[in-house]
Design brief:
Order of helices and strands: HHHHHHHHHEEEEEEEEEEEEEEEE
CATH architecture of the largest domain: Beta Barrel
Oligomer: single chain
Structural class: alpha+beta
Strand content: 25-35%
Number of strands: 16
CATH superfamily of the largest domain: Porin
Length: 578
C-alpha cells in the first residue's frame, strides 16, 4: 500500500511553481500530516533553500528544529520565492549580492571558530593524555590506595569527557565551515548566471533594435522581438531545484501551514500582484487611545511618601484636521484608593490640549503638552508653550513656555544617532525655581553593548539658592517589542543628582522629596544618589505589568529611602493598528 509520504511526494512532483501557491491537489488530511514524521528528503530540501538564501537556518541543521519551527521556515521560503518572482533580475542580483556578503562573513568567522576549536581539541587531547598517563603509571607501579587512585581516576574521566566535547565542537565547526563555503560558491555561481542573463537581455535588446532599424530602411531583415531574445537567454529568477524543493515542502506541510494561517496570507499576497488594485482602507479621522492603570507604591525611610494605591484613567483624543495638523489632548481621571490624594483626586480634567503638525520643515507643537527633558532626568511633566523640532542627521528641538513651578522655561537640545552610538546635548533654563533661576546643562552618550543599550549622562546645574552641582546617570537597558505576549523590557540605573540638576524627576522613587525644592528653606536637602531598576512585562496584547525599585540616599542628610512601585495597565483604542 502506498504510504502518505509517497503519495505527497508524487502529488508534489505534479505541482510546478507556476501553481506553487494554489496547488490544491497537494493537500493532505490534517490527521495524517500531524502524525507523519518529517521525511529525510525534506531536511535536504530545507538545506537547499537555506543555501539559496530563501530561508536562514542560523547555521543549524534542520534536524535540530521542531516541526513547528520547520513549518515556519517553509512559510518563510514560500513567501520569499513568491516575492522574488514578482521582481526583476536586477532585484535578484541585489539579493544575491547581499546573501554572498553574508556567506562570506560567515565563512570567515566559521574558519576562525574552526581554528579555535582545533586548538581547544589539541589542548584537551594533551590534557587527557597527561591525566591518563598518570593514572596508568600509578596503576603499573602497584599503587592501590583509594585516596591516591580515586582523584586520578576522576581527573582522567573528566579529561576524557572534555576531550569528547572538544572533538564534537571541532567536528561541528568544520562541518559548518564546509557547508557555508559550498553555499558561498553556489551563490557566486548564481550571481554570475543572473548577471550574464541581464547582459544577454541588453545585447538582445540592442540587436533587435538594430534589426528593426535595418528593416525600416528597406533591407530584408525581419523585426525581432526583444522578449524572444530575452526568453532564449534569460536565467530564471528562482532556480528550478529551489522551486521544486519549495513545492514538495509545501505539499508535506500544507496542513500545518493552513493551521498557522499561512495559506490565508498566501491568498492575500496573490491579490497584491493583481492588476486590479483594491481601494485603500480609509484611516479614521478621529482616533481615541485610552489606558487604565492601577498602581501601588510603598516607601521606607525618613524622606518618603505615604504608601498609596490608586486607579488612573487617561484618554487621548486625536483629530486629524487636514492630513498634517492634528488637534490632540489628554483627559485624566485619578482616584486614590489608599493613601493621600491631591486636589485633583476624583476629578475628570482636560490636562493636555495642543495642536501638532509640520510647518515647512519644522515639526511644531503648540498648547499644553507633555515635555520630557534629558530622558526625564531633568523634567518630565506638563508644559505650556511651543515645541519646535527639525534637522537631519542632527535633530534640534527647542521649547519655550512655562510650567507650574516656573513662569518662563527655555530649552534647546540636539541629538545625533549612528548605527553604533548616539550623542545628545541640551541646555535648560527655568526662571524661576524658589526665586532663583536654574540653568541645567546636559551631555549624553549612548551605545549598544551586546544585547543591551548603555547610556552615560552628565548633568551640571547652576542655581544660587539650591547651590551649583554636577551629577550623572548611568543606564543599562534591554527593550523588547511591547505588543508581543511574553515580551519583557528591563533597565538598571545609577544616579547621582544634586538638587540643581533636576526640577521634576521622571522616577517613581523619592527623588523629588530629596530635592532642595521640597522645602525651599531648611532642613537643607541636596539631591540624591543611588540606584533604580525596573521591568515591563507584556501579559497579553494591550495588558502590561510594571515593577520598579529604588534605593536612594540624600546627598546632604545621607538619609536613606527605598521605594517599590508596581502597576498593571490596559490599553484601548477605537481603531485597528496597522
Amino acid at each position: 500500500m502506498m504510504t502518505v509520504a509517497k503519495k505527497s511526494l508524487i502529488q508534489a512532483q505534479h505541482c510546478r511553481m507556476g501553481a506553487l501557491f494554489a496547488a490544491a491537489v497537494c493537500v493532505l488530511p490534517a490527521q495524517a500530516a500531524a502524525a507523519e514524521a518529517v521525511p529525510a528528503w525534506a531536511y535536504e530540501a530545507l538545506e537547499r533553500l537555506d543555501a539559496e538564501g530563501y530561508i536562514d537556518l542560523a547555521g543549524k541543521a534542520p534536524q535540530e528544529y521542531s516541526r513547528e519551527e520547520l513549518v515556519r521556515f517553509v512559510a518563510q521560503g514560500l513567501h520569499q520565492i513568491d516575492r522574488i518572482q514578482q521582481g526583476t533580475r536586477a532585484d535578484e542580483y541585489g539579493r544575491l549580492t547581499s546573501l554572498a556578503m553574508r556567506d562570506e562573513v560567515h565563512v570567515k568567522l566559521y574558519r576562525e571558530q574552526e581554528r579555535l576549536a582545533k586548538k581547544a581539541l589539541s589542548d584537551a587531547q594533551a590534557e587527557a593524555e597527561h591525566a591518563e598517563e598518570r593514572l596508568v603509571r600509578e596503576s603499573l607501579r602497584g599503587t592501590n590506595r583509594l585516596e591516591v587512585m580515586r582523584p586520578l581516576q576522576e581527573k582522567a574521566a573528566e579529561a576524557r569527557l572534555h576531550l569528547q566535547a572538544a572533538a564534537r565542537d571541532y567536528a561541528l565547526a568544520k562541518m559548518r565551515r564546509e557547508k557555508r563555503e559550498l553555499a558561498f560558491a553556489k551563490v557566486e555561481e548564481r550571481k554570475k548566471a543572473i548577471f550574464d542573463g541581464m547582459a544577454a537581455d541588453e545585447r538582445g535588446a540592442g540587436a533587435a533594435g538594430a534589426r528593426n532599424a535595418t528593416g525600416a530602411a528597406g533591407m530584408s531583415a525581419a523585426p525581432v522581438a526583444v522578449g524572444a531574445v530575452a526568453s532564449a537567454s534569460a536565467e530564471p529568477l528562482v532556480a528550478g531545484d529551489a522551486m521544486d524543493a519549495a513545492a514538495r515542502l509545501r505539499a508535506v506541510f500544507v496542513e500545518d501551514l493552513a493551521r498557522m494561517g499561512y495559506t490565508d496570507e498566501e491568498n492575500a499576497d496573490q491579490q497584491l500582484y493583481s492588476s486590479v488594485l483594491l481601494p485603500a482602507k480609509p484611516e479614521p479621522r478621529f482616533k481615541v487611545d485610552a489606558e487604565v492603570r492601577g498602581d501601588v507604591s510603598r516607601s521606607w525611610g525618613v524622606e518618603r511618601a505615604r504608601s498609596r494605591a490608586r486607579l488612573r484613567l487617561r484618554v487621548f483624543p486625536d483629530y486629524n484636521i487636514d492630513g498634517n495638523w492634528h488637534a490632540a489632548g489628554m483627559l485624566e481621571y485619578e482616584k486614590v484608593v489608599r493613601g493621600d490624594g491631591g486636589s485633583d483626586d476624583g476629578r475628570l480634567r482636560l490636562d493636555r490640549y495642543y495642536l501638532t503638525g509640520r510647518s515647512g520643515v519644522v515639526d511644531t507643537t503648540v498648547g499644553v503638552f507633555s515635555a520630557n527633558f534629558a530622558e526625564g532626568n531633568v523634567y518630565d511633566s506638563k508644559f505650556k508653550g511651543v515645541r519646535l523640532s527639525a534637522g537631519d542627521p542632527i535633530k534640534y528641538t527647542a521649547y519655550y513656555g512655562g510650567i507650574d513651578r516656573a513662569k518662563t522655561v527655555a530649552a534647546i537640545s540636539a541629538s545625533y544617532d549612528t548605527p553604533t552610538y548616539g550623542v545628545d546635548m541640551g541646555m535648560y533654563r527655568f526662571d524661576k525655581i524658589n526665586d532663583a533661576a536654574r540653568n541645567i546643562y546636559m551631555a549624553n552618550y549612548r551605545m549598544p553593548v551586546g544585547q543591551f543599550d548603555f547610556g552615560a549622562m552628565l548633568l551640571h546645574g547652576v542655581d544660587e539658592a539650591a547651590g551649583n552641582g554636577t551629577g550623572y546617570v548611568l543606564t543599562l537597558a534591554k527593550n523588547e517589542s511591547g505588543w508581543r505576549p511574553g515580551a519583557m523590557s528591563y533597565w538598571l540605573k545609577y544616579y547621582r543628582q544634586p538638587s540643581a540638576t533636576y526640577v521634576s524627576h521622571t522616577m517613581n522613587g523619592m527623588a523629588d522629596y530629596m530635592s532642595y525644592d521640597a522645602t525651599g528653606i531648611g532642613p537643607r536637602r541636596g539631591g540624591f544618589r543611588g540606584w533604580g531598576a525596573g521591568l515591563l512585562y507584556t501579559l497579553q496584547k494591550d495588558l502590561m505589568f510594571g515593577l520598579e525599585y529604588y534605593d536612594l540616599f540624600d546627598l546632604d542628610t545621607a538619609q536613606r529611602s527605598r521605594t517599590v512601585w508596581a502597576s498593571l495597565t490596559g490599553y484601548f483604542r477605537n481603531y485597528e493598528e496597522e
